[in-house]
């Protein structure tokens, strides 16, 4: 094992585990680990394997601000403030130079290399019977999928990249293309799909205290009930996204359907709560309380981003979420978004216009996921609010704890809609983004050409008088939950128009969560043969909205596919 990696891993393990668990953690954290440890000394038992897993997640959390900056500022919904550096301006204008620190791929590859090291040593432990089959595959699958997620991000940002699965002593060696040749993004997708296909299906489920009793450690942020198992990457959702990128739409839809049916196949356990009609389904339970649906003057939708990790209603929505504790791992989003801090990024004028121009079900204007939902205005300054709800600038030392929400049901449903639309199920996709299955299909059962659908397109939302309700009878859809009017679709250009509406809804629902640039890029790659200016026009519209003279330059630059990716330059 690389000695530097060993020391870093042990430090990060302490950082990760100490949050609210051990009174002597500060003293322990001050101890300096030995630099001479090798793999056989570090990986001696299951607790060492768990230390590796949690240590890697500690490293991974360090990518939070980079992930959001790259995926939002390059899109059309975020903009720079006057406080932003020239490097951030370059990202927003798509004029990134080789010395731009945000374009440095090393932070991603450092975590990837840690994953490679752990996976190698898990294999050695398994062969030596230090880990049994279940212990091995739980940890191998988690870190293997996390590494694949990282590689997908690297591919999205840089296009052509080196793909390395063995640990290396010095991550800077990856800059030597003669030793580590680059592969195309499409080739990378093939390799990721091939690798993830080797993971046994039972280990694609989430880690729980039953499957991984030594790995799950509750703390003040992650109490055991319905929280801690969401610390780890949501594997099937990622596999859905991976296949969506590749164009394997049926496989993608199948993975997504597996996830939205979590409550159909599982029951609640000691450390997670499963609600048959609500978990990951985007619903209204009609209780007046246990819902994220906007009603009257009440707008509970922002609670997705502010509620405690163990809160029931929002955990029906949250799927993969990491804590940012003020005492150990700094919350980087405060400096990015708070007008009382560095205030580097803000919502774009285009994003605000998009929310303002939505028509609600009551006929009024204004999407309530916009103002005081995704963004707010503080002393005249628009702030991206999803990361600021628990922060009080008057109490800055005690309210810095936050969350990094990496995946949730809203994203899952929208990506499912994108996949099934490509399979000719445009009506189904429209129902998902509008007001749901109960009102969206005749008889409240999904159908295709008048025939009830089979898996992964089947949804039963019936609500018979005195009978058994279908599992989807509470479905209200993405726009239904926001209490917005349904959008309509052009029957003469159905697939393309439906996809346009899905991407529009992506922006309204998922702004600033790290999806925007990837979603736009994926559609642009899909349409390149028929609409090569799609991406240029989407990003150019951000500059049009403020009357910027840069609009034409940005459009011209993004009309060239080669400019869709960052320069892969080691710094």
UniProtKB/TrEMBL annotation:
Superkingdom, natural source: Bacteria
Record Gene3D superfamilies: 1.25.40.390
InterPro entries in the cross-refs: TPR-like_helical_dom_sf
This protein's name: RagB/SusD domain-containing protein
Organism annotation: Mucilaginibacter paludis DSM 18603
Top-level taxonomy: Bacteria, Pseudomonadati, Bacteroidota, Sphingobacteriia, Sphingobacteriales
